[in-house]
């Protein structure tokens, strides 16, 4: 790929803006040699004002989403893209969240520019389980686990029952919930149907990938090869043990 197109696709500017950057000497190799439009150096050796380029397509990031951020660049107010370098919103292909977290839900969020991978993760047939930790307004009654797992739970204004979900109590007012699907406000609506209210909700795992303890709220990083593979590792068994408690 030509240098101009590569940089434009990575969001460093329009083609004309990138051409100006190249002519101004802002693009070099790792030895400090200024590059021009006709050069085709390896991606890993290219520097933008001395810094390595962002990873090429396909990109897969994990973000520890804080409270108060929405998952669409078109939404008003703070969005998850405010937590990333501004050029990430300009990448081509587009960088998109892999499923969404509600504005007031925190935790593990994946973003990718690989459409096939995105659909593989969110498609129900992949059985890529999602695990949430819910802090509740009042103590669990004890009947919730059986109801969540029944496959007969019907949410208000819906005609199709939920797929079986797993609930594991972690205290009188805390539970881990494992879902096979991701309907609108699903965990909150499930507890509301059970007569409770979710005070705080955090996604702590997707498939075999757990939110790292060392990734603080608002921070992000690329996934390692092992972490990519781990997303689908063992995620098809509904009886698979839940991830360890935080």
**CATH class (first level) name of the largest domain:** Alpha Beta
Mean pLDDT over all positions: 91
Please estimate the helix content: 10-25%
- And the CATH topology of the largest domain? Pseudouridine synthase
| Number of beta-strand segments | 12
CATH evolutionary superfamily of the largest domain:
Pseudouridine synthase
C-alpha end-to-end distance = 44 Å
Structure report:
The protein has 246 residues and is α+β, with helices and mostly antiparallel strands. The chain has 2 domains: 3-52, RNA-binding S4 domain (Structural Genomics Hypothetical 15.5 Kd Protein In mrcA-pckA Intergenic Region, Chain A, Roll); 55-246, Pseudouridine synthase (2-Layer Sandwich). The chain is built from 6 helices and 12 strands. It has helices spanning 3-9, 15-23, 115-122, 144-149, 186-193, 225-230, and strands at 27-29, 46-48, 51-52, 60-65, 96-97, 105-112, 130-136, 166-171, 174-179, 198-206, 209-210, 220-222. Strands 4, 5, 6, 7, 8, 9, 10, 11 and 12 form a 9-stranded mixed beta sheet that branches. It has a 3-stranded antiparallel beta sheet with strand order 1-2-3, with no helix packed on it. A hairpin with a 7-residue loop joins strand 5 (96-97) and strand 6 (105-112). Helix 1 (3-9) packs across helix 2 (15-23). The longest helix has 9 residues, at 15-23. The model is unreliable at 235-246 (pLDDT under 50).
């Amino acid at each position: 790929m030509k240098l101009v197109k590569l940089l434009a696709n990575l969001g460093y500017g329009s083609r004309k803006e990138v051409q100006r950057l190249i002519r101004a000497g802002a693009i070099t190799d790792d030895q400090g040699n200024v590059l021009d439009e006709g050069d085709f150096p390896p991606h890993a050796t290219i520097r933008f004002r001395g810094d390595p380029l962002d990873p090429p397509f396909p990109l897969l990031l994990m973000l520890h989403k804080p409270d108060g951020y929405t998952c669409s660049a078109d939404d008003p107010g703070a969005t998850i893209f405010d937590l990333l370098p501004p050029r990430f919103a300009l990448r081509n292909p587009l960088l998109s969240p892999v499923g969404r977290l509600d504005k007031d839900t925190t935790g593990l969020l994946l973003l990718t520019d690989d459409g096939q991978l995105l659909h593989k993760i969110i498609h129900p047939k992949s059985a890529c389980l999602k695990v949430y930790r819910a802090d509740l307004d009042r103590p669990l009654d004890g009947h919730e686990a059986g109801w969540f797992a029944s496959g007969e739970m019907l949410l208000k204004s819906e005609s199709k029952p939920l797929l079986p979900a797993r609930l594991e109590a972690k205290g009188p007012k805390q539970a881990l919930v494992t879902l096979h699907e991701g309907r609108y406000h699903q965990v909150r609506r499930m507890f509301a149907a059970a007569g409770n209210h979710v005070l705080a909700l955090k996604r702590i795992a997707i498939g075999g990938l757990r939110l790292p303890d060392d990734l603080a709220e608002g921070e992000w990083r690329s996934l390692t090869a092992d972490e990519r593979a781990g997303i689908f590792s063992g995620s098809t068994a509904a009886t698979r043990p839940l991830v360890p408690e935080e």
